[in-house]
Amino acid sequence: MAGFTTDMTIRGLGRFGVWRYYAAVTPDEAKELEGLGYGSIWLGGSPAAELPVVESLLEATENLVVGTSIVNVWSAPAAEVAESFHRIDKRFPGRFILGIGIGHPEHDNDYRKPYDVLVEYIDVLDKAGVPKQQIALAALGPRVLKLSGDRTAGALPYLTVPQHTREAREILGPDALLVAEHKIVLDTDPATARPTGRDVVKFYLGLRNYVANLRRLGFSDEDLAAPGSDALIDALALHGTAEQIATGLTEHLTAGADTVAIQPLGSDYMGTLRTLAAVLG
């Protein structure tokens, strides 16, 4: 199947990639996604320091970029992650981006001075020779966004809207990498699409870093009260026809994203991406 055509962005990522839990994606999926025209796969779920799966996906593809989104700095020691990075980059030069992040205070027992921990982690990667242009940082608020632009290739915001992308680009400047994740539900009926989105989004409404970011973007306490208002769910989990979803995703590019990491929700992950590929351009 021929892939959609898309202008290539910095680092050869293409304008659209996909976000997938690292333990769920397979080499065959990666090969098909590359054929469909997606330029990158971003692996969520806090993979271990050994960075499992990455090499098998790179081996199955020719030009696809694989990134972690993200390695949790609390659970994956920086020195071990650096060793894994060099192992992978030696085999597949320039095709792996190491995305790192702080995780959630609710889920990490030793959640101390997150900003300082990030700086220390980046310091270790830097001393171990991991190149700045192949590190990216999960960033939502202004301070960590600035850190991502100063010390890494750029930012990997999660659970955001185009307004955040616009504000992030202003902080990062024109040259830093900005990959905006967005959830989608290929369903034109709000009565079924919203519950699919809400089932995923409601988890994040119990995590204060995401709630604080969404509040900065103008969502009210009423919107943010679990399980989330219809307006919030519609913004964070786009639903509709493939064409409508493509239009919504493109708003991130207009706002300044280099790449949109698409996360399909529902039972047919690959089917959604096949359908969407036919209308992306």
Q: Distance between termini?
A: 15 Å
- The low-confidence runs, each spanning 5 or more residues with pLDDT under 50, are 5-10
CATH architecture of the domain at 10-182 and 255-271: Alpha-Beta Barrel
Count the E strands: 10
Supply the CATH class of the domain at 10-182 and 255-271: Alpha Beta
| H and E order | EHEHEEHEHEHEHEHHHHEHEH
Q: Which class do the helix and strand fractions yield?
A: alpha/beta
Protein name: Luciferase-like domain-containing protein
Organism: Nocardia macrotermitis
GO cellular component, one term: cytosol
Pfam family, one: Bac_luciferase
Structure characterization notes:
The protein is an alpha/beta fold. The protein has a domain at 10-182 and 255-271: Luciferase-like domain (TIM Barrel). 44% of the residues lie in helices and 17% in strands. It has helices at 27-36, 54-60, 78-91, 114-127, 142-151, 162-172, 190-204, 208-216, 221-224, 230-236, 242-255, 269-277, and strands spanning 16-21, 40-44, 65-68, 71-72, 96-101, 135-137, 154-155, 177-186, 237-240, 259-264. It has an 8-stranded parallel beta barrel with strand order 1-2-3-5-6-7-8-10, surrounded by 8 helices. Strand 2 (40-44), helix 2 and strand 3 form a beta-alpha-beta unit. The radius of gyration is 18 Å and the shape is globular. The model is unreliable at 5-10 (pLDDT under 50). It comes from Nocardia macrotermitis. Residues 28-258 form the Luciferase-like domain.
